[in-house]
């Protein structure tokens, strides 16, 4: 799509969200001026927008600076959370629109270390247990009790076939995402529950109609026992948070009673034996069956706690394990591609940061390619302001990892979030160092393409503080790549919209080193004002604004930004690459010439860290 056409689509989208949905199509068709493909394209985007909103895909509340790590949140009813550092005006925006968003599971909810195989094994365990129970029930019915009605076997046989098929699928080599495992697990439990309840309903009704209350009651007691086994098996085999485990096992516990209630309501004449039984024993049916229900609910609580404990212990065990020569000490954080751990080399004992690619990500060829490129290219660069790579490897479980220098300190995103916008002199001090790191990459013909505050660290290195370190070369490309590279084949947006250059946002032009200069200008803007130049709305809105809207001068967002620095930032943020600094070294020189450039130095940095962040400094 040409930039002009892209802009037209974006403009129409922008306007269409304001039009009454009932009249939207007619309005859109008229505004498309008879261009059917334009009309269809904008309709498609609107539908995605609405779907994303309905499904609850929102930007993370705490992260103004990093839209690459959007998460799925379960409560779309809440007001749209304004990013911590975003301007107050963001309150009225629509929910996040994420047509091309890299959506990841919420960190923590997603078992990420070596967990694919574990989840597979445990789900297989649960399936096999259900098959064994069902086969035993069948065998008992027809071999021991000699149940005469062969039709009653049908649901059980179908269940065995379905569970067996799932088992075969799980034995296969195909990789599944955590969401797929979750769906398979819930589907399996749901099917088992439906079949058992159906069988309970049929058999109890059959015996009740024949007036055989003793056997009807026996069927109920057996169902309670089967629920007991299922509840315990779930607790042992299904890796879960306690909330999810509780919702599943409580449902299993209540199912025999819900079925009983259904029988009572639908066939009161056949189920008269229940009240008779109560009367004979001097109690009510509720008292009679309530005790069983209470025991099952206690078991369900116990099993939920068990599921949670097993999952927690396994996670701790995994985190304490060794990866080759490295011992994982603690988790530092998680990004779009995987987790980063503080680790220690077995012999050198030096601390390092170990980045582990998420197992479900490793299943995607493109992601692995990105990971390998990140390692290779970063390792080739040797500037002191670029993070140093120590090692690269693959675990026995097939997980990829690389090891880099550990950076005590804070990312620029965290720095601004915790302490607010930086004084201009300090921003210049950090930005100049990033310019030098970028100069080396650009000279090697590489464009970083993902410059953002979370990818730059203010760190303590070699006894000095506020040493800027540039990380995450995962999106780096040689200058003058193919056009429109920003959307991957899987439809993910590559890069971070709030810090993307207009040419990256529209994908309409070749991206060169001046694209990084734009992103660095956006980082400067963020450091000085506490918010990126464009932060309102979802992804498409931001991309539209980046491509089209003029940038509000930083001093209008936060008074006190010096004129000379403001001019530099606005020049970096020019829509046309030709209007920006031609080279990152020119930018560095311009920053060095700012009046505030001498306001910050190593001594002031050391003092600041000792007072404000003594722990991070340590
Ligand atoms: N070398 C390092 N030293 C110390 N902490 C690090 C290091 N590298 C990353 N981290 C921390 O680990 C966390 C995850 O980093 P990662 O690079 O995966 O995330 P990201 O850059 O936010 O995400 P993405 O890769 O999607 O852009 C971040 O909070 C970051 O601060």
Automatic annotation (TrEMBL):
Database matches in InterPro entries:
Kinase-like_dom_sf, Prot_kinase_dom, Protein_kinase_ATP_BS
List residues traversing the bilayer.
Answer: 123-142, 154-172, 179-199, 219-238, 245-266, 286-308
Amino acids binding ATP: 355
* Region Disordered, annotated ranges: 73-115
- Keywords, A to Z? ATP-binding, Kinase, Membrane, Nucleotide-binding, Transferase, Transmembrane, Transmembrane helix
Q: Name one GO molecular function term.
A: protein serine/threonine kinase activity
Please list the coiled coil stretches. Answer: none
Could you say which EC number(s) this protein's record lists? Answer: 2.7.11.1
Q: What is this protein called?
A: Serine/threonine-protein kinase
